[in-house]
Amino acid sequence: MSERSAQGRVSPLLLIALFSGLFLVFLDTTVVNVALPDLRDDLGADVSGLQWVVDSYLLTFSCLLLGAGALADRVGAKKLFVGALAGFVLTSVWCALSGSVGMLLAARAAQGVTGAALMPVSMVIITQLYPDPKARGRMVGIQSAVAGLALTAGPLVGGALVEAYGWQSVFWVNLPVGVLAVAVLARLLPATRPDRGQAVDLLGQLLFVAGVGLLTYALIEGNSAGWGSARIVGCFAAAAALLILFGVWEARHQHPMLPLDFFRHPHVGAGAVINFTVFGAMFGAVFLLMLTLQEVDGLSPVQAGVRTVVMTAMVTIASIVGVVVAERIGVRITALAGALSMGGGLLGLRLLEYRDGFDAYWWQFLLLGLGAGLAGPPVTAALLRAVPEERAGTGSGVGYTARQVGSVFGVAACGTIVSHHLATSASTALAGLPLPPSAVDKLAAGDLSDAAKLPAELRPLVLPRVGTLFMDGTHLAYTAGAAACAVAAIAALLLLGPRPTPDNP
After folding, report:
1. How far apart are CA 372 and CA 313, in angstroms?
2. 192 pLDDT exceeds 70?
C-alpha cells in the first residue's frame, strides 16, 4: 500500500503531504476562534451566531466521521482522502468569499463535510503503512502532535492574518497548502483494493446526522428561544427518538455504520467516553477563553493567540510523550493522568477574575494541554488495536466521532451556560446605570463590543460589571467541564486494561 524506498521506509514526502492535509483540518477547528470578534463586527453575529460559526463546521465534521471511516473501507483510502482534501480546499475558498452569516454557516458546514473524511481515512492509511502495532501507535502520537502543532499555529497565524488582512484570510491560507498536498498524494499514494462487500449504511448516517444536529440546535438556541418552548422541547424529543432509532437500526443492520459488537472490547468503550468528555471540555474551554481574552481583557487577536501557545504547544509535546509513556506503564494510568490534568486545569480557570494578567492563568493552560496530550493519543491507539485491521477506517471513525461530537457539545454547552447567566443576571448587575434598554439587551446577549462604544463616563462603570458577570458565567462552564473530566477518569479506571505484557499486548 505504501510508497517506500528500497530500504522499505515510507517516503518522507508522502508523510509530509498526508500530515499537511490533517494539519489544515485541525487548524480550522481553532483558527476561526481568534476571528470571532471581527466576524461579529463585520457580519453582525451575536454569541449564538458565533457558536454556530464554530459548531456548523464541527457538527457536520463530527456527524460524518463514522460514515467516512466505513466509506474508506469500501471505496479505498486514496480515492477518498485525495478527493476530500480537494473538496476541503474549495469549501475554504467559499468560506473566504462569504458575505453574510448565513452564507458563512453554509460554507463552514460544507467544509466540515469534506474534512470529515480526512481524519479516519488518514488512520486507514497509517494502519496500512505501519502494520506493527508499536510503530502504528507512535505514528498516532505523531498525528496527534501534528494536531497540537495546528492548534498552536491556529491562534498565532490566525491572529496575525486577521489583524493584517481581515477574517477572510484565515480561510485563504488553506489554498496553497492544500493544492500542493493534493498534487503529492495523487502522485505518490498508491491505491488499495477496496472492500466492495462493505455496504454504505445511508439510513444509519441520516439518523445520526439528524439526531445530533437537532440536539446541538436545541442546546445552542434554547437560551434565546426558551427552554420550555415547543420548538426546543420538540427538538430534544425528536433528537432522542432519532438517536434511539439509530441504535436499534445499527444493532439489526447487516453492515452497520457503527458496529455495536466493537464495544464488546472495553478499550473501544473507553476510547469513545474519554474522547467525548476530555475534548468536549477542552474545546468548550478554548471557545470561552478566546472570547474572554479578546472581549473582556481587550487583547488583540495576536496577543490572545500568543497566550494560548502554552496550552497548544503542550498538546504537541504530550501527544508524542503520552504514547511512549503508555507503552511503558500502560494506557490506564496515562489516560487517568490526562483526565485529571484536564480537570485540574478547568478547576484552576475558576480562579480567574476580571482582567487578570497572564501570570494568573498560564499554569491552567499548561494543564489543559498536558491533559489532552496524555488522554487522547494513547486511548486512540488502544482503540485501534482493539478492532480488526480490515475495519480500521470504521474503528478510527468511532474514536474521532466521539471526540468531535464531544467538541460540538462542549462549545454548545459552554456558550449556552454563559449566555444564560448573562441573560438572567445582566439587568440586575446594570441596575441604576443610565443605559438605554437596547444597550442592556445587547450586553445581556453577550455582545460586549457595545460597552466600549458607550460614553466615556459610563465605560468605567459598565465594563467591570459586565466583565465580571461574563467571568462568573465561564466559571460555571469550567465546573461542568471538570465534571466531564471526572467521568473520563472513571472510564479510564474501569474500562482500560492493566499494563500490557508480552503475553497480553
Report:
1. 11
2. no
